[in-house]
Each structure stands twice: as C-alpha cells, then as structure tokens.
Amino acid sequence: MSLPDSFRTIGGTYIGEFKDKGSKFIGYVFPVDDESDFKLKLKDIKKEHFSAAHVCWAFVCGANKEFEKSSDDREPSGSAGKPILNAINSCNLQYVAVAVVRYFGGKLLGVPGLIHAYHSAAIEAIKTAQVLEKQIFYSVFVEADFTIQHEVIRICKQHQVKFYPDTQNQLQGITFEVSPSKYELLLQALQSRNFTHIVQLRIIYV
After folding, report:
1. Is the pLDDT of residue 181 over 70?
2. What is the pLDDT of residues 86-129, one digit of tens each?
3. 44 by DSSP, 3-state: which?
4. How many whole angstroms separate alpha carbon 63 and alpha carbon 43?
5. Mean pLDDT of all residues in the chain?
6. Is 189 exposed, middle or buried (0-12, 13-18, 19+ CB in 10 A)?
C-alpha cells in the first residue's frame, strides 16, 4: 500500500469530559509514535487515576492506519474500546491515542449508554485538540559522480523536489526528498537516464 502525501495528527495532550448518571468519563487524547510509546503514556494516566474504575483506550498508528488497537478494560465487550477507536477514525487522525478514565457514579448505564459515554468523552477530548497536517516525504539517495550531478539536479528541478549533494558509504551523489505521489514518476525519469543506483533512505514526517 502506497503512502499518502500527508496525514492528520495532533500537537500535544488534550482533555475532555463527559458525565452521565453520576459517572464521570475523562478523555485524554495524545500523539503516539508506536505501541511502546503508547504504553508508557497510558501507564502515567493510570498512575494519576489509580482509583478509577476503568481506563479504556484505543490508538491508531501508521499514515494508512495500518495498526489499530483498543481495550474495554473490563467493561462489557465492545462497549468502550471500539467506540473510542471509532471516534479517532471519524476525525481521520493517525498516530493518535485516546484513553478514557471512568469514575463510577453508582448507576449502571447499560451497553448502549456506555457506548455513547465513551465515544462522547473521546470526541470531547479530540474537539479541544490542535490538529496538525503532517507531510510525508521519501528521502532517496542517487549515486552520481560530481561531473554528472547536474543531470540529477535537472531532473529533480523538473519534478519540483528538494535536493542536495550528499555522500553515502563513500559514494558521491544527490539526496532528494519527494512526496509519495511523485516518487514513481521521478524514479522512472532517473532510471530512463541510466541512474540505477538508487537507495530509499527513510521516510520523513514534517
């Protein structure tokens, strides 16, 4: 699956709240790099709310939402984690997690009530967040002796991509940064000029 040219995420930790029949649901939304990063941040939330009845959560990682996970944390199956996950996806966010802390108010809400409450707490938190548009670029190295680098530069300029002279493993060349949608066309243009030593170095999120 090819990457998009950009994705939506958030710029920090934000909090929203929802109440129903005495129960209080506190939603935390925050950016995450991966599952390990998420677990560390979730641990801090659980430590802060050690007396809460439940801390349910969901997160989405990957520019194409390749990795999603959620937990009901002992609430009835499907009543908490999935509604939280649906809230994240309905706002089209990536690399984002939401944890909803529940303080029980003494009255049962039933599964429909829980679904509404957890989804609402997640949405309330997301509504307060600063949404950021992150651009995606491939960083690609093309081997080219100094005497022919001008040809690589000319092709890069034609495709309007950022480039700079570089050295990789003692090889001279040009590194360029290109959006996923332009990558294949630029690759074809370089290969048609017999530039075949091409190495994709990494993916950059800006």
Report:
1. yes
2. 999 999 999 999 999 999 998 999 999 999 999 999 999 999 99
3. helix
4. 25
5. 94
6. middle
Distance from C-alpha of 120 to C-alpha of 109, rounded to nearest angstrom: 14
> Does the domain spanning 136-205 belong to CATH 3.40.50.1980?
no
Asked if 58 and 70 count as a contact pair (C-beta separation under 8 A), the reply is yes
Matching CATH number, 6-129, of 2.60.40.10, 3.30.230.30, 3.40.50.720, 3.40.47.10: 3.30.230.30
Nearest to 60 by CA among 24, 98, 23: 98
Query: Which helix (H) or strand (E) is 12 found in, with range?
Result: none
Most distant pair of Cα atoms in the chain: their distance: 77
CB 103 within 8 A of CB 24: yes
DSSP one-letter code for 148: G
- pLDDT tens, residue by residue, 154-167: 999 999 999 999 99
Domains of the chain: which residue ranges?
A: 6-129, 136-205
- Name the amino acid, one letter, at 44: D
Give me the helix-helix angle, 110-127 and 81-90, nearest 10°: 40
Q: What is the pLDDT of residues 144-153, one digit of tens each?
A: 988 999 999 9
Look at residue 80 in the predicted model and tell me its pLDDT. Answer: 98
Q: What is the CA radius of gyration of the chain?
A: 23
